[in-house]
Design a protein that fits this description.
Elements: E1 2-7, H1 15-27, E2 32-35, H2 54-64, E3 69-72, E4 75-76, H3 82-96, E5 100-105, H4 110-115, H5 125-140, E6 147-150, E7 155-159, E8 172-175, H6 181-189, E9 192-196, H7 200-216, E10 225-234, H8 238-247, H9 252-258, E11 260-262, H10 264-275, E12 281-286, H11 292-306
Parallel strand pairs: 1-2, 1-12, 2-3, 3-5, 4-5, 5-8, 8-9, 9-10, 10-11, 10-12
Antiparallel strand pairs: 6-7
Helix pairs in contact: 2-3, 3-5, 6-7, 10-11
Length: about 300
């Protein structure tokens, strides 16, 4: 069972804060540090000191960590041209010694596009599909050969398909709740399927759809990793759980219903119920990045029980 730390820096975090969390992630034995890829805060957060770019952040962390995996949940396809994204991810993978994973989604948050002058096309899913074909195609092209692609939205001609990542294959993550196109896309391109903030019922149905689509693509049942992203709020007692919930502006009962909340034993039990549905990896959404004691408790009280 892999536990990964997942951060939302658009809500307010400097690079130094993210570095502290990433180093704690590594020192405490977690598997990976992931971050969102957004340029505008959500809700009531002040968002200070302002947005940071996911791949610039990961490039810095690649040089300041040694073991943990690094990646995005999810990079928005609207933010970058596919050829540029392939170069960026390959370079960060080289900088990390082969520890990068690419989560790629269609993009959905219209306000952040308007706030920073980023085009927000009506047809996003078809663009995502072409981006996946181009990014993976560039990486898979043998050295000395060229890559071409002609789609509705993007055309690539006579590309040298460089640079190459350090890994033979950078893991690609695809996720979401879509009932038809998302499973099909995951079956074709994903090394991992992630369901963000879904209930046990949602998880069961969506994992089943992806498995069915993967079988139709001729993929084995173990070729795709299944994971959940869930907000986490753990305390050694009820008072500590309540304090941590208040710090992120959430109610304890709501967190227990929709995330991983409560005592370490309660959280281990909830993880077990998701694991029964096939989840082998969890992205623990940490919303209070100043509370490194929270990570320490999760490591000692939850991770230690999961082996």
């Amino acid at each position: 069972m892999d536990l990964r730390i997942f951060t939302e820096p658009q809500q307010g975090a400097s690079y130094d804060t993210l570095l502290s969390v990433a180093k704690a992630t590594e020192e405490l034995g977690f598997d990976a540090f992931f971050r969102s890829d957004h340029y505008l805060r959500m809700g009531d957060a002040d968002g200070l000191p302002g947005p940071s770019d996911a791949w610039i952040t990961l490039a810095g962390l690649a040089r300041e960590t040694k073991r943990i995996r690094l990646g995005t949940l999810m990079t928005a396809a609207t933010f970058r041209l596919p050829g540029v994204l392939a170069i960026q991810v390959a370079q960060v993978d080289q900088m990390s010694g082969g520890r990068v994973e690419l989560g790629l989604g269609a993009g959905w948050y219209a306000d952040e596009h308007a706030a920073y002058g980023i085009p927000f096309p009506k047809e996003k899913f078809a663009r995502l599909e072409e981006q996946l074909a181009i990014v993976t195609g560039l990486w898979e092209t043998p050295l000395g050969e060229t890559f071409d692609f002609k789609g509705t939205h993007y055309t690539v001609e006579n590309s040298p398909a460089l640079p190459k990542p350090a890994q033979a294959k950078v893991p690609v993550l695809i996720g979401g709740h879509g009932a038809r196109r998302t499973p099909r896309l995951a079956a074709r391109y994903a090394d991992e399927f992630n369901l963000p903030f879904g209930s046990l019922e949602d998880t069961a149905s969506q994992f089943a759809r992806v498995r069915e689509a993967a079988e139709e693509q001729g993929r084995g049942k173990d070729e795709i990793v299944y994971s959940n992203a869930l907000v986490v709020c753990v305390g050694k007692d009820d008072a500590e759980v309540a304090r941590r919930a208040a710090a992120i502006g959430r109610e304890v009962d709501e967190l227990k219903a929709n995330g991983l909340a409560g005592s370490p034993a309660e959280v281990v039990d909830t993880i077990g119920r998701y694991a029964e549905l096939g989840a082998t990896r969890f992205y623990l959404q940490i919303l209070d990045l100043s509370d490194l004691g929270h990570l320490e408790l999760i490591a000692s009280g939850v991770q230690s029980q999961l082996g």
